[in-house]
Specification:
This protein is mainly alpha-helical. The chain contains 18 helices and no strands. The two termini are about 20 Å apart.
Length: about 400
Amino acid sequence: MSKAALTAIGAGSFIVLLSFGIRSSFGLFLQPMSMDLGSGREVFALAMAIQNLVWGAAQPLIGMIADRFGVARTVAAGALLYAAALYLMATAASAFDLHLSAGLLIGLALGGTGFGVVLAAVGRAVPTEARSMALGLTTAIGSFGQFVMPPVGQALISGYGWQTTLMLFALGSLLMMAAAAGLRSPRASGTHAQDSQTLGSALSEASHHAGYLYLTAGFFVCGWHVAFIAVHLPAYLADGGISAGVAAWCLALVGLFNVIGSYCAGVLGGRLSKKYCLSFLYAARSLLILVFIMVPLSVTSALVFSAIMGLLWLSTVPLTSGLVAQIFGLRYMATLFGIVFLSHQVGSFLGVWLGGYLYDTYGSYDLIWWLSIALGLIAALLHWPIDERAVARLRAQA
């Protein structure tokens, strides 16, 4: 690959590592912030739900901005907002403050620093034959943040408190502004033929493609799973007598094994059918959750569950984004994947909010676990009939 492609992969991986890593540690703040604010778990859960919903709702628009003005500028602005929002979250004194900072503002910041815009830049910088692998590699390295940040976050919370920890996270997030320059890469050769397509035409083309609709619906389930588990798993384990330290390492294991799973998914997506890989991943998630809630909860079962779930965690991202690029091309990839990602975040909103609501209502997470199993099986079926061929427009150009 060219120097520009390698630079884009490196910069994109670092940006996602920080952005996703900080966000992945938010579950550790649920109990201490809820106690200090004197609120139930639903207040913090609602803030996370708002964050996911705003992130998703803003992603198509942010994707359009990135497609129009460049990913580097978009990421730099998102990083600055991320730092400001974390500072405000650290000074939150009420439910409103928490919903504004951790919900609305961080949701917007994630739209500018997350996978949606970063993977579009990486996809454009690499040749077609290496695209799936590059998307998987970027997702994998970026996902390493979920391994690094939760233990660091828990250690900081234990030693200095949650306010100071969020302040330090705010300072660290500014590093994404410097890395954004590495995403100023030229488009991959062969994409110029697609430049004449308008945004309206691209949106119309995608909305009339059944596979795009299935992909969008299936990604809803991915969001439900990862948001619910990331935010509520530490509390679920604490309810079962598992220490906060073990819970932090469970989140870290998800991140560590996610590195392996995401890279392997990217490699396999370049060799096998992406839609069948996605069907397998969603079915495997349902089976894993079923086994986890059926066996007695222990440190061992929690660690094993986290490791295997990590293999399945964001393996969907390179496959889903790769399918969007494969079917519709790269010209409006940030926008089209942004719309798919909106569905993901609607699922995240419902998963994380219902997790808190159903727990406060019934005193148990049982119902949300069973809903997660059912949705995983539905997603596995939805991906099966997707037509993976490039649209007629691209085939004619080729």
